[in-house]
Write a structure and sequence with these properties.
Number of strands: 18
Strand order of the largest sheet: 2-3-1-7-8
Radius of gyration: 36 Å
Structural class: alpha+beta
Number of domains: 5
Strand content: 5-15%
Shape: globular
Largest sheet: 5 strands, antiparallel
Distance between the termini: 52 Å
């Protein structure tokens, strides 16, 4: 079987597009070949700055011949139906056969599809792939119609076998496929022919092109670390930069230069960011001092002077870049040490969102919320409030204006320089975390308080203005914020009821949006309700307390229908519930990634205090561990049987069997034993639930498996004696109550 080699040679392909482009070429070509009947043994894609390469081994030389029978409409069907069938089958009327079936005579099309030579199929698939390639951005050039990421210069497409190689006949927009390619742009610009992939890769290497991006990256890293080690330094790891640089060169030449001592006092993160973003340099650190003192650049050419001129030019450009950074740093430090309020006040001119106010207004909300959260996460309330007020200050700094990716980090440096405590300074950086599922979660109490406040304010704000994620769209990263809240709470074992804070934040937004429209009494009521939420926990309870306090008896039963405060009272609880449900949905995703079934999570969400995520997950963990055991699985089946019998009886009789059963009416031994088992279980479950030891509670429930099984084996519930029947139904209710202590087992599937 022949092997296929394809090379699409162009001007420089952006480094960040290369890996995806290689995979797209591989997928589209192999899918197209297989669909056309050409199977293959293996395929691999390679990329360099100027070429996409695909090698496919063991390709069939012909597609197989196929014979297909396709049933059509009845012979007496309308003419349009018959014509549609002819078009779909690709046949003429003369090609149709008539066959007798139960419902009459029917047309059949017998389609013979002869095998096609591999070159014809390859040319067809490659032409379609090139013309429809999914570049994120593409361009046209000259007078042609082809769109490509950069001007496409040549196509190499050959089929090679033991008896030689043949060029696949193909022309795309005036570019004729051949067996020629070129090496390095400067060191080996002449074209040369190839006969197969081994020949191709060997000749490319002699022409100063390393085809494999992984090989280029390995070479860069090995040479950079060796040079650094030889000089007593270490290269700062940066996987993303290494991948990008490997996509910028075909023949990597590693050079190490020095950083002017004038910049030694710049924070290492500033040096690293400036060199990475502007120059694509690797930072080289002195392990003794922790400072960035050298850099590594990767050239794409070997020079007689071993890169001396290249290094000199790079150092000159770097000096200018770092001079700017030094200027920003020194200016910012002067402001930080004198008065950081200059920055916080300037946030009044920065709009966070047109419906949610300025960054300054947002900071004040976060500060108030952080103060409220502080006691629940072990933070000092004054420090948490202070940290929140400073948390966005660095957004006004010149350094963050130049390097937005340094926000938070620079805030930490500036707060520390201004003399604030380590906890307050750290919160400036850490309150942004976590920003993804793999980010580290802050553990310092002040940082946790500010981080939770920041994310809850974001969620509540966008819920208040009805800007929620829809489908795959999430322009304000609200799913990420919700996951951040979940991880902050769970990984710090924080115990707080989110309902309270959600309701308070939503009410703040309602008051802000009111903009003085409501009557003074209504606005006063809302503000009083806001202060009462801290004590009563949720909006509804706080509002009822305030109504009792401020309104006459005649007005207490309800507010005037259609009034402003009536609208708030009706709307806000629904918004709050929807936001909590959104957090629960993200929690489901988070826990499913840990192997926990959705029905187990739903069973625990159905229980009270489900806004305490730490408590909720303790329930989930205990239930999940129990369901995995044989006793636990059988217990759930016994519970469902008891529940189904009870529900049916309650529906038929029109009563609720919740009156305590009495053992004196027990007639069977299994019935008496179940009473005793329930007594023993309840004696263990009650203290376990009081201590929130759900694992112990579930163990006690699992011990009920055997007596419940014996009860259903030996005892008939629906007997003629109504006293005995009622007692047994009440006993089933007791089973349901005991087994539902930790979770709503009716929601467990299976």
């Amino acid at each position: 079987m022949p092997d296929l080699l394809i090379e699409l040679f162009s001007e420089e392909i952006p480094a960040r597009m290369q890996a995806r482009a290689g995979e797209d070429l591989k997928k589209r070509m192999t899918d197209g070949l297989v669909e056309a009947g050409l199977t293959y043994a293996s395929a691999a894609a390679f990329t360099t700055p100027r070429r996409l390469v695909l090698t496919v081994e063991g390709v069939l030389d012909h597609s197989p011949s196929l014979r297909e029978e396709r049933k059509g409409p009845r012979v007496d069907a309308p003419e349009k139906a018959i014509e549609g069938f002819l078009r779909g089958a690709g046949v003429t009327r003369a090609d149709l056969e008539e066959r007798d079936e139960k419902k009459g005579r029917v047309f059949y099309a017998v389609i013979d599809r002869p095998g096609r030579p591999a070159p014809d199929i390859i040319a067809e698939v490659l032409d379609h792939t090139i013309r429809n390639f999914p570049w994120p951005k593409s361009m046209r050039w000259g007078t042609g119609s082809l769109r490509w990421v950069r001007p496409l210069q040549s196509i190499l497409c050959i089929l090679s076998a033991e008896d030689g190689a043949q060029t696949v006949p193909l022309e795309v927009d005036g570019i004729v496929a051949g067996n020629m390619t070129r090496g390095h742009r400067f060191m080996a610009p002449d074209a040369f022919s190839v006969i197969n992939f081994d020949d191709y890769s060997a000749k490319l290497k002699r022409a100063y092109v390393v085809l494999d991006a992984a090989e280029r990256a390995d070479h860069i890293w090995a040479d950079a670390t060796n040079q650094a080690f030889a000089n007593g330094f270490e290269v700062v790891e940066d996987a993303a930069l290494l991948t990008e640089v490997a996509g910028l060169v075909e023949w990597p030449v590693v050079l190490m230069g020095t950083i002017d001592p004038a910049f030694k006092d710049l924070p290492p993160e500033v040096l690293q960011t400036s060199m990475r973003e502007h120059q694509k340099f690797f930072s080289v650190r002195n392990p003794k001092t922790g400072r960035i003192e050298r850099f590594v650049t990767v050239a794409n050419v070997q020079t007689p002077d071993h890169g001396a001129i290249i290094l000199a030019g790079n150092q000159k450009v770097l000096f200018a870049r770092l001079s700017d950074a030094k200027f920003f740093w020194e200016n910012d430090l002067r402001i930080a040490k004198s008065d950081m309020s200059i920055w916080t006040q300037s946030l009044e001119n920065v709009t966070f969102h047109n419906k949610l106010g300025t960054q300054a207004e947002r900071v004040q909300r976060i500060a108030a919320l952080a103060r409220d959260i502080a006691p629940f996460v072990g933070a000092d309330a004054d420090e948490a409030e202070q940290a929140a007020q400073l948390s966005k200050a660095d957004l006004s700094s010149e350094m963050v204006g130049e390097f937005p990716e340094l926000q938070g980090l620079m805030g930490r440096y500036y707060a520390s320089a201004a003399g604030y405590s380590d906890a307050v300074s750290a919160a400036s950086q850490e309150h942004y975390a976590p920003q993804g599922p793999s980010d580290a979660v802050p553990t310092a109490p002040v940082s946790v308080a500010v981080a939770l406040a920041d994310k809850l304010d974001t969620l509540a704000g966008f819920w208040a203005i009805d800007e929620k994620p829809t489908g795959s769209k999430d322009p304000f990263a609200l799913r990420r914020a919700a996951l951040g809240v979940i991880r902050l709470v769970l990984e710090n074992s924080a115990r707080l009821h989110l309902d309270r804070f959600i309701d308070a934040e939503l009410l703040k937004f309602e008051i802000r949006q009111a903009n003085g429209t409501p009557p003074a009494l209504d606005l006063h009521t809302m503000e009083e309700t806001l202060s009462e939420i801290a004590e009563h926990g949720v909006f509804g309870a706080a509002l009822r307390t305030v109504k009792t306090r401020f309104y006459d008896a005649a007005e207490k039963p309800d507010f005037k229908e259609g009034s402003w405060i009536d609208g708030i009272a009706k709307r806000l609880p629904d918004v709050s519930e929807h936001l909590l449900s959104f957090l629960h949905d993200r929690l489901k995703v988070y826990l499913r990634d840990q192997g926990i079934r959705h029905d187990i999570i739903d069973a625990c969400i159905a229980m009270p205090a489900n806004d305490d995520l730490t408590l909720l997950v303790k329930r989930v963990t205990a239930l999940n561990d129990t369901v995995k055991t044989e006793d636990g699985e059988n217990l759930i089946q016994g519970f469902k049987r008891a529940n189904n019998i009870l529900l049916q009886a309650e529906e038929n009789d029109g009563v609720e069997y919740s009156y305590g059963p009495d053992v004196k009416f027990a007639e069977a031994g299994a019935e008496t034993e179940l009473f005793a088992a329930l007594d023993a279980a309840e004696a263990k479950i009650a203290p376990a639930m009081a201590q929130e030891d759900f694992t112990a509670a579930m163990h006690a429930m699992a011990a009920l498996r055997a007596p419940i099984d014996a009860f259903f084996t030996d005892v008939q519930v629906n007997v003629d004696n109504q006293t005995v029947r009622r007692n047994r139904l009440n006993l089933l209710h007791r089973i349901r109550t005991v087994c539902s202590s930790v979770a709503d087992l009716t929601r467990i599937e299976g």
